[in-house]
Design goal:
Layout (H helix, E strand, L loop, with lengths): L1 H41 L5 H22 L3 H9 L9 H19 L1 H4 L5 H28 L1 H4 L3 H38 L6 H25 L6 H6 L6 H9 L2 H31 L7 H21 L5 H21 L4 H12 L3 H20 L4 H5 L1 H23 L13 H29 L4 H17 L8 E6 L4 E5 L13 E7 L3 E3 L4 E6 L5 E6 L4 E8 L9 E3 L6 E2 L4 E5 L1 H6 L3 E8 L5 E3 L6 E3 L4 E7 L1
Antiparallel strand pairs: 1-14, 2-3, 2-13, 3-11, 4-10, 5-6, 5-9, 6-7, 7-11, 8-10, 12-14
Length: 631
């Protein structure tokens, strides 16, 4: 059984990661290369003066559309949150959003079937309609993809594995475009026209390839992942989320707000710089063929940083990892500004620029803020909360699109312009917008995250523990009543709860404790295992006669995150009294500085008609401790 579970876990991780390979490539196509296509190839059949005006028009429309649509993203998250289908809440939107947005992207790269050069007014109208539809369905796929993370696991470190794998493949998808875009566009342009340049036909072929890749990758995610049905999500899914709930989820959660601000500042700096590097190599350095270096170096760095994150995070808190990444980014800007003529230093700058954990840390902080908000506000909004990051990406992408267009036109980098056409004034303007402003943004991002984001991995584990205990105490067993014989689940020293320190006794019930002499937990009565905490240190059982109990293994063991616990059942399984349920490593618990005391807690004291106090004594596993009657 454990081997089968492990195999499913590996398949789930792989499938989730593959989704972002295509999804990130599509985002790069949308946010970076579509604007390059607009400034260089879309209006290639028109005079420069008319083409520049149309470039301004189209990029202004893109910025306006994407900024206005930001208000829609939380509503999209709300629609996803309220989706209930046999495929779950995320997969229907992942697939439909990906397919529709990909097909519409291809349409845009055709110049809406040639209208861009034949009827610019009709093209502009249809462009707005097409782009809005594309952006909305892209948002559905994006919100659903990242919104799936908390549905795959409640453990912060496991979420870190999913997110780092997604970030790893996403970086390959994003930077892979940088490696292949020039040779691929040039090749297909040559095949169509016989010219060695980046023409409209080459850009269209490029868009078709990336769009098909995105669809295939998201199908793998939909097939290979599985949402978990557990206590926390089950409780949250009973209530339909309203628009008011959406606003409360965002405005009443300070950790969402501060993490979002820090990520906004980072993302804006990152997207601006990525958006202009093509122009930097082509027009400032006069080395367009060397642009592939950006993708090669970034991909190599991603092979180090993304897999390294979950390893480093075992020893280094994620806030420190964010700090390390931002310091590297700041150093890269110093090189870009003052030493860009030195190719060796430029390669180092590209490496430092990509050595960042900002997106990983932000996604995980926002993901953990779901339980933070659920505990504090009573509302769990998975997709709504995780709609914040795509919303920020959309906003920074819009600003970047507008700024890149402004730089291209202002610095004379459109149409058939070359590096020889650049002046010292245009180079100064370029560097100011491309590197100096982003440098300031990167410093501000570091300050915000360091001072205002307080949701650490340890704090999240404590929140999950509190939340699960709260929800487990609130369960009911209507219609069942009678007397249950309760046996000792483990051998050791029997203790009344009153003998334990107040801070160690879970609230909301009666029960007893055992200082164990062995590391095996057996069923204290015949019944059903209702749930297990993701950290495995707590499981909930219900007897055949309606008695509900928590078996809490160790004190403070939530921080072990499941390490040292090995279960022999599945949630929902009926078990017999005395059946082995779990083994736990007592030595490991003690080595980590925790107490191995086992607590048996009856979670509905208002239903107890008969309950016997216990006196300290030695007991053996399976020995009857008391009889408990519930009404």
């Amino acid at each position: 059984m454990n081997r089968n579970v492990k195999s499913k876990g590996l398949i789930s991780r792989f499938s989730f990661a593959m989704g972002n390979l295509g999804h990130a490539a599509f985002y790069g196509l949308l946010s970076n290369y579509f604007i390059i296509f607009v400034t260089s190839g879309l209006f290639s059949g028109l005079p420069d003066t008319i083409a520049n005006k149309l470039i301004y028009l189209i990029t202004t429309l893109i910025v306006v559309v994407r900024v206005v649509e930001i208000a829609i993203d939380p509503l999209i998250g709300n629609v996803v949150d309220n989706t209930h289908s046999k495929w779950g809440k995320f997969k229907p939107w992942i697939l439909s959003g990906t397919i529709i947005s990909s097909l519409l992207m291809i349409v845009l790269f055709t110049g809406i079937f040639g209208l861009a050069n034949s009827n610019w007014l009709l093209f502009s109208i249809l462009f707005v309609i097409t782009f809005i539809t594309l952006d909305v369905f892209y948002s559905f796929a994006d919100v659903s993809y990242w919104g799936m993370v908390p549905a795959l696991s409640e453990d912060s470190r496991e979420r870190g594995v999913y997110t780092s794998l997604g970030n790893f493949t996403g970086t390959i998808g994003w930077n892979g475009l940088t490696i292949i875009v020039v040779p691929l566009v040039t090749y297909f342009t040559f095949k169509a026209t016989g010219k060695q340049e980046e023409g409209p036909s080459g850009w269209l072929a490029f868009a078709v390839i990336i769009s098909l890749l995105t669809i295939v990758c998201m199908f793998i995610t939909a097939i290979g992942t599985q949402e978990k049905d557990n206590l926390i999500r089950r409780a949250a899914n009973k209530k339909k989320t309203s628009i008011k709930d959406v606003l409360l989820a965002l405005t009443h959660n300070d950790q969402i707000l501060w993490a979002s601000l820090g990520y906004f500042l980072f993302s804006l700096a990152n997207v601006i710089t990525n958006g202009v590097l093509f122009y930097f190599f082509k027009f400032i350095l006069d080395k367009p063929a060397s642009y592939s270096l950006v993708g090669v170096v970034a991909t190599i760095i991603s092979f180090c940083t993304s897999p390294l994150y979950p390893i480093l995070n075992k020893f280094i808190p994620r806030k420190w990892l964010f700090t390390i990444g931002q310091v590297c980014m700041i150093l890269s800007y110093v090189i870009f500004i003052f030493f860009s003529s030195n190719m060796a230093l430029l390669i180092i700058a590209i490496a430092l620029f990509n050595f960042t954990f900002a997106q990983l840390v932000t996604v995980l902080t926002l993901t953990d803020a779901i339980e933070y908000g659920q505990l504090n506000n009573g509302e769990r909004n998975e997709a709504v909360t995780l709609a914040v990051r795509p919303m920020i990406d959309k906003l920074t992408g819009a600003f970047s699109n507008g700024l890149v267009s402004f730089i291209a036109v202002t610095c004379g980098m459109t149409g058939a312009a070359t590096a020889a056409d650049m002046t010292s004034a245009s180079i100064h303007t370029f560097k100011s917008f491309a590197f100096i402003i982003p440098l300031v943004l990167a410093i501000l991002a570091l300050f915000v995250f360091d001072k205002k984001v307080t949701l650490t991995e340890k704090k999240h584990a404590e929140i999950v523990n509190q939340l699960q205990e709260k929800l487990s105490v609130d369960t009911t067993s209507a219609g069942k009543a009678g007397t249950t014989e309760v046996a000792a689940p483990v051998s050791g020293q029997l203790l009344p709860l009153a003998s334990l320190p107040d801070s160690f006794v879970p609230q909301g019930g009666e029960g007893f404790a055992i200082k164990p002499s062995e590391g095996k937990i057996c069923a204290p009565f015949s019944g059903t295992v209702r749930f297990t905490f993701t950290t495995k240190h707590v499981l909930g059982m219900e007897s055949d006669r309606g008695l509900e109990a928590l078996i809490h293994i160790g004190l403070g063991t939530v921080n072990l995150r499941g390490e040292g616990f090995n279960s022999y059942y599945t949630d929902g399984q009926k078990v017999e009294k005395g059946q082995l349920l779990m083994e736990f490593d007592r030595d490991l618990i003690k080595e980590r500085g925790y107490d191995d005391t086992v607590i048996i807690l009856f979670t509905q004291p208002q239903r107890l008609l008969r309950f016997e106090d216990v006196a300290p004594r030695e007991t053996k596993s399976g020995e009857e401790i008391m009889q408990v009657t519930v009404k």
